[in-house]
Recover the amino acids of this structure.
């Protein structure tokens, strides 16, 4: 596409930022009439030169939480020489960006304890698992040198399994049948003149041409099945054996495969998606490396946060830390519980978003039966069983063993599973998944590990839901005195790492602007 | 899925084959009433034990052509100890499985000569570029230890550019608009009773529920755009800036985006697809390694093929080679030109399939502008310009440079480009692609290399088209005396490596069966 005026303007700003630092950048933005809240896509990190021009050093910042938001704040502020300290209650960094490997130990708030038994090379992204192309997460992967690979979010060879269906069908067959009948119905309606008020003759001809392709219709505009459904024996020397005749229109509609067919239509889930090679935690590992491990104190819960007239004071397990500013990057429902002097409206606002339960089960198999028996290479089976999804691994193709996600569910289903012991979760998920994959699903299992995010210490939820983006959400976008807030929960990308990163960039930008204004 | 009777029977056969060799396998197949032509999916390679039980050695086979079919024949026959020699006219193995790297030299039949100038790490699959999940090609990758990764065959962020379109649009927007209007038209037709003869009340309710999801319709069943179209500024701290309003129904139909939207609906092209890591030629490199380089004679054109009463005699550049059997795995139009005594019907049959022109252009850029500027990570832009497609690389994400396929066209467009000098091909393709990507498309180019398969010595075509699968096609499935034929052109998977491999397996199976029968 040729460059739009907007892109040119953005390029100008990036150029200014690179040459003159963020201070010059903000001035240029004002001159161009850009509102500050459109910054998120033209972020310019704080730079040492922002200070050296003024002959003063950067400020001291304490960051609460070493999840993606907290680490991103420390990383970006660190570029300009801010003296950051990150306090993390858990004994590891990353927060919900959690990749589990053999030997890891999980203790839930209720006491349930698991030790991961995966073999070398097997990993399980228990939190976020996929990244869309447009997300800032990929920019951090590029900048940090974290190699990426495709996450297969949709696979024509995976299964669809609904309550309205006797046996699972391949996604390709479900799609071919629905599209075939939809195309037939519309083409025939148009043919009989039912749409003449809306469509010109030329429109109708073009529509018919499209519908023939879309539904693989016969010359009489009828759907009678299609090679798109797949084959029992795929073509080779012979033309192959087609995978049966399609069910009737009524049966196809009754099967209710709509969710499965449209799952990747949205801007968040469209193919292709990506993942870091070797595990999602490569991102937080790289961020922590850049921040410096000496600046991150794990196993250090915060017990009090106070705004002072000239700084902030944070009390933690091992003592008291004073700084010029604070960025609070904890889940809001946990932050609300920490004693502070930020005011009752802040506490009320932090209590407004509702934590959502989310569960994920990792199943390690010693044989990649989904590739060998089912010819499924990555992707997701959609089901109306309470396991909701079965994910096949997008890494380690053709290797000996592999990691299947046995459920990824939220809300009531996640509450149900989270209320069980790990053993019972596993047993239930194997029974349910066995309805799709048969006996081997249980028989060939090597080991499993389950995550109930609502039971995870220092996190206590998969993500949060806001009743609205007004009021509390807006209030927490602003600092409370010298305390800034950051997290995916403060964005329109709740539950995505990109949200945590965008929110961190906003907090860093505003904090840095304030510091520069104070200096000038 | 639980195991079907068919699968169980197949498993039985594989078990028999593994234990007792192919001879026992064929006996078991007969007992079970399986037709021989359903073998292709239950292939059991010849084994040394097939002979040792009979106390005799394997036969000597000369194979014409070291493309995928020829190498697969030599590899499979070699497992049982056949004494194979592969004669290849070109100075490298692989045939159309050709990966170009810096330093490679290309000479066309017309004399046009290019030297590839790519930097270290850049490669261009000038022939096949993608593998479907069900294809036997993946089995060979597994067996040979060739690592694979996802080939992005469809990308919601790539562009669609048709003659009916003023400017290119993102594939996600084209899809959202077409699906939105299709859903609206059908939902409203159903609502007004136009489909009452065909649909029950329950059908109609289910259809409406599906169409709302499918088209992202409003409660009034109207399409007014969707976040699925994408954003000018994606959501982050703010809700983002939507990417404009959709064009009118008439304009969407006039844009004619049907081909682009349906390109991955078929069983051959459905996502995800795969490619070997590091270049498609990893497959032929591995096959040649297993066959043994001492058994492959490159630069050795064949000049005559003769059936004898007790063997075959093949005359080549350096002499005469006698063997018990021959597998001719050359393109049929080239084989037809080699003097032989296989009879006039064979010559006529070999002349029946029509060679098809195909062209592909590799463009190396020093900056991955498609990722950085356009946020396109792999995938294909579909256009009605004569370049037909622009492929973005599915490897090397985030690295410094990258390889874009500037055209992949066939038929008249390929003939047009193939008739030009490389310099003119490049110039034309840059002008055309620039209509989609702007000035940088030419400005940032580092180097390019073009392949016109119809001009490739010893190949002379992208693939062939058969007028029918009767007659000549059927004749060449059978050996002419002791000469067997193999190649993708002898299958229903013309132009796919999987076709060459399936055909090779068939030739090997039949040849081996004959040898065993001769011995018994």
């Amino acid at each position: 596409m040729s460059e739009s005026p907007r892109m040119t303007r953005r390029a100008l700003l990036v150029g200014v930022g690179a040459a003159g630092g963020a201070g010059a950048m903000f001035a240029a933005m004002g001159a161009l009439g850009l509102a500050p809240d459109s910054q998120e896509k033209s972020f310019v990190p704080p730079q040492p030169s922002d200070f050296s021009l003024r002959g003063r050093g950067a400020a001291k910042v304490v960051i609460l939480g070493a999840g993606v938001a907290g680490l991103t704040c420390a990383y970006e502020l660190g570029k300009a020489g801010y003296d950051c300290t990150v306090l993390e209650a858990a004994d590891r960094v990353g927060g919900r960006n959690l990749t589990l490997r053999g030997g890891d130990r999980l203790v839930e708030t209720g006491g349930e304890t698991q030790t991961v038994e995966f073999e070398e090379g097997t990993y399980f992204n228990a939190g976020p698992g996929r990244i869309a192309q447009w997300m800032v997460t990929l920019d951090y992967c590029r900048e940090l040198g974290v190699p990426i690979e495709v996450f297969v979010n949709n696979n024509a060879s995976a299964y669809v399994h609904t309550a309205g269906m006797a046996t699972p069908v391949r996604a390709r067959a479900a799609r071919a049948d629905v599209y075939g009948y939809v195309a037939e119905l519309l083409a025939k309606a148009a043919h009989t003149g039912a749409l003449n008020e809306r469509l010109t003759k030329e429109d109708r001809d073009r529509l018919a041409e499209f519908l023939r392709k879309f539904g693989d219709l016969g010359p009489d505009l009828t759907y009678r099945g299609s090679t798109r459904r797949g084959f029992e024996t795929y073509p080779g020397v012979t033309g192959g054996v087609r995978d049966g005749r399609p069910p009737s229109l009524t049966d196809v509609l009754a099967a209710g495969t709509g969710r499965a067919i449209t799952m990747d239509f949205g801007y968040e889930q469209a193919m292709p998606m990506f993942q870091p090679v070797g595990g999602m935690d490569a991102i937080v590992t790289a961020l922590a490396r850049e921040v410096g491990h000496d600046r991150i104190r794990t196993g250090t819960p915060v017990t009090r946060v106070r705004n002072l007239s000239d700084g902030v004071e944070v009390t933690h397990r091992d003592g008291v830390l004073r700084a010029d500013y604070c960025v609070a990057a904890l889940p809001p429902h946990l932050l609300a519980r920490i004693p502070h002097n930020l005011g009752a409206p802040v506490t009320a606002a932090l209590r407004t978003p509702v934590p959502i339960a989310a569960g994920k089960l990792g199943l390690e198999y010693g044989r990649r039966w989904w590739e060998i028996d089912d010819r499924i290479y990555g992707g997701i089976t959609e089901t109306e069983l309470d396991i909701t999804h079965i994910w096949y691994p997008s890494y380690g193709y053709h290797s000996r063993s592999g990691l299947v996600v046995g459920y990824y569910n939220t809300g009531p289903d996640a509450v149900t599973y989270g209320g069980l012991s790990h053993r019972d979760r596993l047993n239930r998920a194997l029974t349910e998944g066995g309805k799709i994959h048969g006996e081997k699903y249980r028989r060939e299992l090597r080991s499993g590990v389950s995550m109930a995010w609502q039971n995870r210490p220092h996190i206590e939820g998969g993500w949060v839901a806001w009743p609205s983006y007004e009021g509390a959400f807006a209030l927490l976008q602003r600092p409370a005195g010298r305390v800034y807030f950051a997290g995916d929960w403060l964005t329109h990308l709740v539950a995505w790492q990109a949200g945590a990163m965008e929110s961190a960039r906003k907090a860093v930008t505003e904090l840095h602007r304030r510091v520069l204004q104070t200096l000038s």
Q: What stands out?
A: The longest strand of chain A covers residues 402-410. DSSP finds 17 helices and 26 strands in chain A. Confidence is low (pLDDT under 50) at residues 1-40 of chain A.
